[in-house]
Records
---
Amino acid sequence: MNKLLTISPSPHNYGDDSTKKVMYGVVIAMIPAMLVSFFYFGIGAVVLTLTAVVSALVFEYLIQKFILKKKEVSITDGSALVTGILLAFNLPSNLPIHLIIIGAFVAIAVGKMSFGGLGQNPFNPALVGRVFLLISFPVQMTSWPKPGALTAYLDAETGATPLAIVKEALKNGESFSSITEKIPGYADLMMGNMGGSLGEISAIALLIGFAYMLFRKIITWHIPVSVLGTIAIFSGILWLVNPETNADPLFHLLTGGAMLGAIFMATDMVTSPMSIKGQVIFGVGIGVLTIVIRVFGAYPEGVSFAILIMNAFVPLINAYVKPKRFGEVVK
Amino acid sequence: MLKTFPKGGVHPPENKISAGAAIETLPLPTTATIPISQHLGAPSAPTVKKGDKVKVGQIIAQSTGFVSTNIHSSVSGTVQKIDDSIDASGYKRKAVIISVEGDEWDENIDRSPELKKEFSLSGPDIIKKVLENGVVGLGGATFPTHVKLSVPKGMKADVLILNGVECEPYLTSDHRIMLEKADEIIVGTQILMKALDVKKALIGIENNKPDAIEVFSKLADKNPGIEVHPLKVQYPQGGEKQLIKALINREVPSGGLPIAVGAVVQNVGTALAVYEAVQKNKPLIERVVSLTGKSVKKPANYLVRIGTPVAELIEASGGLPDDTGKVINGGPMMGKALNSLEVPVTKGTSGILIIPELEARRRPVQNCIRCARCTQVCPMGLEPYLLMTLTQKSMWDKVETNHALDCIECGSCAYTCPADRPLLDYIRLGKTTVSKLIRARKQ
Amino acid sequence: MSATVIFTIVSLSAIGVIAATILYFVAQKFKVFEDPRIDQVDEVLPGANCGGCGYPGCRGFAEACVKANELDALFCPVGGNDCMADVAKVLGKEAVAKDPEIAVLRCAGTHSLRPNVNQYDGAANCTISSNLYGGETGCTFGCLGLGECVDVCNFDALVMDPETGLPVVDADKCTGCNACVEQCPRDLFELRPKGKKDRRIYVACRNMEKGAAKKIGCEVACIGCNRCVKECAFDAIVVENFNAYIDPIKCKLCRKCVMVCPTGAIHELNFPPRKVKVEVEGEAEKPKAVKAKPEPVVEVAASKAEAQPERVVEKASPEALSNKENENTSDQSIKLGE
């Protein structure tokens, strides 16, 4: 035998999981929601998704190749793809192309690569891009096309999201029960027949993705359930206190980015806590902040901000919330 | 609902290819290389010199302390030399090298195959006998058995746990002896119970060995005090602390030994060795070794004399496959890759696993994506990703406060990591450095 | 409008004044007395914060200097004697001049001289590898080639040579800070005095096995034959555990030991060529060109020359480089003449 034996420390057995599989698993989980968005927003959704994905990949490639000067560029690992799709999910379908590209640039360059690339970023890159656009271009970012105009892109007929309608009405002193005909019914909210960002409209499609990710064990249930549970409980308390000035919990769960945020954004591995206990704290924090912003804040929608704020707490949570050690002596 | 430990663990493909192969006796080697340190603890002191004639079962190295044990010649012949010889790590260790001439056994050893059930020795006498015959834990850690049986003052064992889990993929040596030597193991268990003065013994067997569970359940019915518990197939079910948690729901405190919760864990192979030592006066000179691997022509379980070169086992199974990448002493999760085939089988060799080249090389290391898989699978509730980073940054005080020393090196974290990071490599480095620092601090 | 502007300016100034007052009093109340000399010493130190002095960074060293009664035990390896003289001047104490030191690698087992017997495939970290395995070669004392020393060097003075698999010390950059000496799990680095004209002689082997055993693993191992001990007129060489060590203080750099070493384990650096003079023109030729000269003696020596890879990259003139090659050549020719 002239071949050399390989030596290495144990273990010698490796699971078949890989970063690629995890990332593409997430992509597969996002497909139902993507199809729903194509169905309701037509050509605009397609253009938006494609632009966001392609520009995210291009920026990732360029930065790795020419700024970080890496020998092996890792755009095939799917992480930029996920960021691109998530960014698209968070934008209205009539957003001009140049803004999408700016959003993708901020997401990849500022949100991710400036911290050292995959795994190093404290904030969810897609949300960094989205919030940057929201603050810089509020007009374009808050004019939501109405669903159904399949061929229109920039010239789509726009309207407000259900959350914005409610917020506006409540501010004008109308009661929640009096405006129910202005907002879509629960069935429409479930299916996604409402104005809003691409990915956030259909609760059903997002839940299918959630089920898939749970089945593939890509994520655990703790973050989504704690986020949505907290939103339901907190908004439920407010609703019980005064049903006239507060929307009911189901409405809060089904509108805005609650589902999308809880299932795809908050569960981003890089920016969520490591221990189960920490994940629950993280989820509860997002839920509380979301409702606080929605009900008491200036913006009708608060999920993105809530997630980014809680992202900032993740290192702290990781440092202080430890898993239960086996055989730990309880003092 | 099968019993298991509560948190963490992985389920690697079981690959128990050699489970159906009955134990065969391997022919004697031409030379036997018997290292003087085959156990955890102080190396033994050689009592023979070059040119001495030795018989099978004769003591060739004497125990040098409490945590140490005797070593016996596994063959008969002439001592060629006492010299450095490479062990599995490639480092040189002292060994007694004997050229084999015939097969002459020491007269005191009872070589008859009859089952001898009755024993009259008292507890301390059993422990003495176990030490004399050089019995160590055969699960792989090779901790001297007499030390485990000597319960420290102020503590009391109330249950004996017999480890028939064999949670490592591929390995089948324990499975085979449970099928073929069940009666002996039961007598061995009773001897161990006597030595520990306990009334209860629990045998834990993973559920992927239904035949062994059946055999032992029948025997347990006849022998009061012995119970058999099927366990969920989950790695590392056979870890001492995990097994105790699964069977009697007690948690060994951090840094403590199982005896702190009144339990003593012994491998089924050790029970067999204890039976042979006490009833047959036979020292630990041979053991069952699985020789297995996906490309091995004849996966088998061999009864091998200690000191036989690994190469001879491989030869007996049809030679080294062409696509060999790694040869592992032990299982794929905790075994040690051999750097030479001339390394001898020792008391701790539970199997020789040959891994094809395609599976032998590690995949390139990628960035940590903080997926928390390692934290989820760690059966000890540690944070492997954190320990690795802290070790890389030499933050030893933090490595210590994050319980690095609790790590049982099961490898679940590295197994599950999607970014193929060498988590366990670094945690092990952190452990050794921290224990060095602690030792320095005590002085 | 103007009222708003004035109000803003006034209120901001008021806040500023109040904050400044509070800060002033707090600073007075919690003032920590610090010896001003610490700052002065800190200023003359190199500021590399390498820890080579044994203190946590330059600041820690400065504090230690100020506290100490004498500077004998304190030395900044990076700044050297000049720096210590400055420190002494600031503090009004005496500095003890020390010979500047430099790291040498005591292993010469290149890939070709010390063939692999297996391949390591774990984490690329020498300590991890060394804790578990004897290494990829037959020598369990030699360099593992995973470059932990390169990582700890703060001065870029160590570079891994992919051809030999050994780190190379850049003599110009090495400050003798001791970091590599402490890091190497095999204890292969040693700080040795820089020597007159940068000349150094040392045994490039740390193998403690019996001679015959290590000869199998590596061609250039010190086999503990004691020939150099007998040759040395200054009792500078001791053999312990079959491994020779040259005491740099006793060594007079006479180079006799180099000639008697049967394996070429003793390395000499920066010496002029001996006896046989090979003409080297001033042209900027690479040393390889010299090696290729078709002289019979040199040809035999070429294999020997490879057997003694230069451990230290010197930024010397082309002549010096060529001379170094020729040293080996001349060595061999002398031996052949015997």
---
Amino acid sequence: MFTPNLEDCHQPVVELEHVSFSYRGQQVISDLSFSAKERDFVGIIGSNGAGKSTLLRMIVGLLPAGDGQIRLFGQPIRKFKDWERIGYVPQKNAFNPLFPATVREVVMSGLYNNKTLFRRVGKSQQQRCDDAMEVMGIESIAGKKIGELSGGQQQRAFLARAMINRPDLLILDEPTVGIDAKTQADFFELVTHMHQHHHMTFLMVSHDMGMVESYLGQEPKQQNGSINFYVRHSHDIQNCEVPDLQHSLS
Amino acid sequence: MVIDIMLSDFFQRALAGGILIGITAPLIGIFLVLRRLSMIGDTLAHVTIAGVALGFLIEVYPLGAGLVFAVVASFAIEKLRKAYKSYAELSIAIIMSGGVALASLFFTLGMGYNTDVMSYLFGSIYTLDTQDLYVVGAVTVVVVAVVALFFKEFFLLSFEEDAASVNGLPVRLLNMLITVLTALVISTAIKIVGALLVSALLTIPVAISLLIARSFKSSVILSVVISEIAVIIGLVIAGIWNLAPGATIVLLLILLLVLTMAGKKGLSV
């Protein structure tokens, strides 16, 4: 019987090679090498100031990597142009809660990228927005102002925005900070369900050890300073003979 | 007599100019207010006055000189904002005081404060000539076209700049575009309400719309409608009772803001 090579069948999605970062003369990240492959779920855990959010910001190009090399989908980050392949869920306090935007407007904004400049929003994009909201269970509040929603609903809206492009890599920056325990558990369940059923790689910064351990195991796969990387590899849940996972939301 | 005023050339030019500025000022103002950059309006207005003063001094078209000054200042603000990332307001303070200092210098080099320069400080919509109207018209076309073209990108940039970056949008270019458009709007609006009141036209219609609107799109439409109501009614009132038009428009906007706040409070009680 054919046995697939579990380690090699998935392509690297995020690669960090000897990455360092200093802020105001202080070394925040030092000589970090790490790789996340297709369908991996990576939990990045650490105390406040450990550099977890700095690391995420480097990976999405918001901060320049001081030293070393960052590659996304095999390309050096400087040359990377396929940003629609990446979905990003920010921290809860990343936006002005008084901003007059509806849930629909926020979810739709996930489609605005470097390849949609000068293009109008058409019916197919509207449909994708409807689909993303339906999957996240927020279609009934599409017309509500984002600032008037509960923390859990807001994060579902941001998750819908990240999912609207059907990304290959989903990045979540402390998505449940400031949300009550029950909503945190629901949100984490939703995210892990998505990991098991969609063809995506997850990178999640979290402070919640309990939830991370329950899904990613108790032992970190790697450590750098006070940042710990917990990984559930793709081959832990799916083998290479299952290439048929539909790249769709539904 | 009222009809005579309304039918006069100067009033009709004023009305046309007012209606055009009534569109562009809140259209740019909404992006400034939502990005907490309301003070940029005041800063660029003061720099424009320096340009206008220089225009009078060297006898070139004052509004044109003011416009060039405002655009150059808008680039300087962006540059300084990058240099002092954690102190964004510092760039505004530096450029504003620089603008006032330059304006004072040019005033003293010229004949002192003359009525022409004063008309730019306090606004003088009735002295709008055909050339001014062409400039205001051209700026309106540019502003409306650029905002329509980049509406969705400007929305994301204002809502969450990080997400715009992660989506690969040219954030620096878009920021620069908004600042340059602001410079264009301010330098043309000062002829209407004056440099000292120009930021009112950019911010108060937006402030009112934020109290009522349920979406971003409706905020934009409402702020333009509110601005037009204030400009048209303000100009008519000023024409009938011989009041300062700029001041009348701004006071009318403040009245609308107070009424909206009171109405909202009344509804929520």
